[in-house]
Hints:
Layout lengths: L21 H29 L19 E7 L8 H4 L4 E5 L2 E2 L5 E2 L4 H15 L4 E7 L7 H5 L2 H18 L3 E5 L7 H19 L6 E6 L22 E4 L34 H12 L5 E6 L2 E4 L2 E4 L8 E3 L8 E5 L1 H7 L7 E3 L4 E6 L4 E4 L3 H13 L4 E5 L9 H6 L2 H5 L11
Helix pairs in contact: 5-6
Keywords: Membrane, Transmembrane, Transmembrane helix
Organism: Caenorhabditis elegans
Pfam families: Glyco_hydro_18 (PF00704)
Amino acid sequence: MAAKHEYNKLSLVHLPRKEVHSEKRIPSILTRTIAVLFVFALLALVSIGSEGVPQLRNSRDLTKSPCKKRVVGYYSEWEGTEITRSQLGKLTHAVFAFIHMDSEGKLQFKTNQKERFEKLKTAVKNANSDTKVMISIGGDHNSENFGSVLSDSEKKSMFIDSIARFIRQHKIHGVDIYWKWLGNSETEHHDFPSFLKDLKEKLKTVRDDSIISIVAPQAKMDRRHDGYKFDDFMEYIDFVNVFSMDYYGPWPNQWGTPTGPSAPLYGGIGVKKHFNVDSTMKYYTCMTEDPSKFNMVIPFYVRLWKNVKEPISSGTEVFRRADLKNGAAVGNSYMSRWTVDHEGWELTPALWDDVTKTPYVWNQETGNFLTFENKKSIEAKLAYAIEHNLGGVWIHLVDKDNENEELLRAVASKKFCASESENKVTYDC
């Protein structure tokens, strides 16, 4: 899996010399012995002194990432796939999702999380890369405590101290705040920027290059974006991972139909005509005039609908009617490529929707319908990120890819990684 470490060794060079009697060699032997012991003692002191430095590896020894754009890869706590050196060499940031926060603001591992997290740290160390390791807090199943913790000064301090302690103890680089989703109340408008400001100040005492990122929701979708007043906290964060996906899915409610891409680059249908990546990225960029702070998502999972029928309208084949059962769509929202392979789902040959810039597969006989990303759709998203001077992309999730890293290799393309851009707005705002 990972290459073995190679360490510098202290070697003593013996020079040719004349034979002398043993009693005459004693002072010389003692002198050399004392010198060697002194060197080892000095090295031990240096080693002890460096234990408190929160780094995975001396930066001078690291293999620099070839990518000039951010490629942020999220790893899940539950997947059992191997974390490889090859994967990490294609990422600028590796984010472990998630570390649990309790109602008092304390961080803790759940179940077997720690083992998976330690594997990520070890893989980065063995890869000898400068990939930045971060933890993410929140998400679908652990965002309920943010509001109460941040509104209580003691709990907020506990939360910030827990984050700082975790980063110091595990010698990682930063934290991702994945509050899903920040509300639109005056209290939260005050508490969130205040928290980020205090967190930034605290993390500076841990390491000068500490990283803070947040996850922001889709724009123009249930008004979720209303709570994000970027002017109030942009200076305290390093980048934003925009959740520009989940526009369509086999949901267990009336929104499980129609079918559609999880992350359509453009287009939409009916009340969802603005449910696309472009609409969201344009909204945030025009609001902040800071495109380099934003990363757009590339989802690695596959979506499956069953009982799919005719298209909603001609010319929009990717948007189809799905029969609901007991008011819910039937399917799978987050299939990994491993699951796809082992359950026998075929992703080729795929059809292409030129409006949304996404592939799909529909089997008329079975009524099964799949949407996903492939090399062509990823290339379209990367070109979009370059065109609009975005800071990069983030991946949900790296461990949903196949063993050949088909999607990750497409993301970390030479063209994308070699691209440099100004922090300039190119949208017609």
